[in-house]
Write a structure and sequence with these properties.
With 198 residues, this protein is an alpha/beta fold. Helices cover 36% and strands 16% of the residues. Catalyzes the isomerization between 2-isopropylmalate and 3-isopropylmalate, via the formation of 2-isopropylmaleate.
Length: 198
């Protein structure tokens, strides 16, 4: 969903599992879907963990625990590995997450998140461990993600870290622009350049 991104302060959903791959984020059988509706993919985010084989709700999975909620998913190291399916980013965005925090992302998945207006924030393993501990101690604790200043802050401890982001993608997120929108925004400059260099 295209939304301008500035500062987000939210409670978090903890997923302290390492090496979560895109097939776990959105199982391969959903890649045959003919819809691009974010809500469809959001409903099936972590489908095989959220539901038992008989279709009943897995009450032990964090997304089914009403204790946790918010716009920030805090995930373990190496999030989004495996296949390059963009559907995984669609599912994360469709569920309502606007930020995913981890100590490491698979490169293609990281870019897919950015292209779908989800901000992947890379933090140190120490900071990530502190976030998980703070959420466990108080599920209502909040994290502040400040895109303009590129900082993430654990509001429970006051500790902050800087994070990196490509300047172009930062501009697009802050202005709710996808790649086509960006080109259209600069159409006049492109046409002027073409005229001058014909």
């Amino acid at each position: 969903m295209k939304q301008k991104f500035n500062i987000i302060t939210s409670t978090c959903v903890p997923l302290p599992l390492e090496n979560v791959d895109t097939d776990q984020i959105i199982p391969a059988r959903f890649l045959k879907a003919t819809t691009r509706e974010e809500s469809f993919f959001g409903e099936n985010l972590f489908r095989d963990w959220r539901y038992n084989a008989d279709g009943t709700v897995n009450k032990d999975f964090v997304l089914n625990n009403p204790t946790y909620g918010g716009e920030i998913l805090v995930a373990g190291k190496n999030f989004g590995s495996g296949s390059s399916r963009e559907h995984a980013a669609w599912a994360i965005a469709g569920y309502g997450f606007r930020v995913v925090i981890s100590s490491f992302f698979a490169d293609i998945h990281k870019n897919n998140e950015l292209n779908n207006f989800v901000l992947p924030v890379v933090v140190s393993e120490d900071f990530l461990a502190e976030l998980f501990a703070s959420i466990e101690a108080d599920p209502k604790m909040q994290v502040e993600v400040d895109l303009p200043n590129q900082t993430v802050t654990n509001k429970a401890t006051g500790r902050s870290e800087k994070f990196e982001i490509n300047g172009y993608k930062k501009y697009c997120l802050m202005n709710a622009l996808d790649d086509i929108d960006f080109l259209l925004e600069n159409k006049g400059k492109i046409e002027d350049w073409e005229r001058r260099n014909a």
